[in-house]
Amino acid sequence: MSLKDRIDALMEPCATGSREEEKRRKINMLRHQLDRIMGHRQPVTAKIPPRNPSNLEKVLSGGVVETEDGPAFLVKYDYPLDHNHGYRALKTFLEAPTERLPLFAGAHLTKESLMENAIFMDVETTGLSGGAGTYAFLIGVGFFTKTGFQIHQYFMRDFHEEPGLLHLVSEFARTNAWLITFNGKSFDLNLLATRYIMNRKPFPFAPLPHWDLLRTSRSVFKLRIGSCSLSNIEENVLGLERYNDVPGYEIPSRYHRFIRDGNAKPLGPVFYHNRIDILSMVTLAAIFLQGIHQDEFVEELTPWEFLGLGKIMARTDVSRACDLWQHGLALADDEHIEFYLKKELGHAAKRAGDFTRAVVIWEEMMGSHLPDPYVHEELAKYFEHRVKDCGQALKLVEEALISFRHIDKWSESLEYRRNRLRRKIREGG
């Protein structure tokens, strides 16, 4: 018996009333999806009965949009440009300098790219593991207009509305647009690409330049705040506290419950969660752009953030990276961050061949109590290879062994360097 025949056999009545109607609706939906997967261009003859959720429009303040691929539900929110999200107004993103924008979003995005063409996207899904069986049931898209910032939230009231949802979202993939997401490279865009493939549609966002704020956040914030979840960044950097929010892990179950009972009330916090994610992306992107340009003091950033921003800047301009590290050093009031900032400045001076500057920095670091023999090793290399004073180099290595021998990851390399220096001294090197 074929799979279709088995589904047809399931159509035999075995329940009454609402249970029978729900069963027929689900089976017809399965037939509809099977037909699409098998490549039939003509829709199945049995129509999928609508569930007509009782309070969807009232709870979400939206409405149905019809497309050539079917319907989807749309909720719109408008924010003025001076709307404050955290410490900053949304318009600060539009005012941010763009010269170093390609550092974050890739070479395909030039410094002349218009900030108002940025598209902020966030996706809520039926599961957190991804894969072909995971749907994006809510796709939020934020964008700037002439008068403010608008968020469109596209929602599928049932699985058969996915083609209409994807059709509407595709309209944002215009030629001059570029994307900003949070964890989009690893999750959101991969999931959407799968959904477009399953619906036999080309993925419209593939050619667009893309800035994944999670990757930048890990480079900039991880040393100070640890977890770089958006909620933790909001609390420790943006000065935000969410109210009436829903944990991300709970979102899939709320949607599945809505599919079963049609009650939209538990979805209210899900839509709120999606909107706040998008607004936080706007503020966060503005902070990164202003921080890396150092055109003004960015109050949200500490010396730890200037350490991370300098590492990003060093990919293309070490001199400007040193400016960021020096700026962080001027704000530093902690031995740990001073050590790491000076370590980067010392590396930069060494790479530039400015050993006079490098030695000054390394000697300033000699009094550090951190468990890192970096300074001893660098000075030992300098005296061995540049000054040709193996005796002074050996003295530095032996001092390091006294302090760091108990740390396994350092002891072996220090022992090796000491033995080699002793051999060179014996041989008259």
Characterization of this structure:
- Helix content is 53%, strand content 12%.
- With 429 residues, the chain is α+β, with helices and mostly antiparallel strands.
- It folds into four domains: 3-37; 56-293, Ribonuclease H-like superfamily/Ribonuclease H (Nucleotidyltransferase, domain 5), CATH 3.30.420; 302-365; 371-429, no CATH class.
- The longest helix is centred in the middle third of the chain and has 26 residues, at 268-293.
- It starts with a helix and ends with a helix.
- Residues 40-50 have low confidence and may be disordered.
Question: How do the helices and strands line up, and which of them pair or pack?
Answer:
Elements: H1 3-10, H2 17-37, H3 56-60, E1 63-67, E2 70-80, E3 84-85, E4 88-89, H4 91-95, H5 101-105, E5 118-125, E6 136-144, E7 148-155, H6 162-170, E8 178-181, H7 184-198, E9 210-212, H8 213-225, H9 230-238, H10 251-261, H11 268-293, H12 303-313, H13 318-331, H14 335-351, H15 355-364, H16 374-386, H17 390-404, H18 408-426
Parallel strand pairs: 5-8, 8-9
Antiparallel strand pairs: 1-2, 2-7, 3-4, 5-6, 6-7
Helix pairs in contact: 8-9, 8-12, 12-13, 12-14, 13-14, 14-15, 15-16, 16-17, 17-18
CATH architecture assignment of the largest domain? 2-Layer Sandwich
Number of strands: 9
Q: Choose one word for the global shape.
A: elongated
Distance between the termini: 86 Å
Looking at the structure, the CATH topology of the largest domain is: Nucleotidyltransferase, domain 5
CATH class placement of the largest domain? Alpha Beta
The protein's oligomeric status is single chain
What order do the SSEs take from the amino end to the carboxyl end, as H and E?
Answer: HHHEEEEHHEEEHEHEHHHHHHHHHHH
Structural class: alpha+beta
Work out the count of structural domains: 4
Using only C-alpha atoms, the radius of gyration works out to: 29 Å
Largest sheet: number of strands, sense, barrel closure:
7 strands, mixed
Helix proportion range: 40-55%
CATH superfamily of the largest domain: Ribonuclease H-like superfamily/Ribonuclease H
Query: Count the helices. How many?
Result: 18
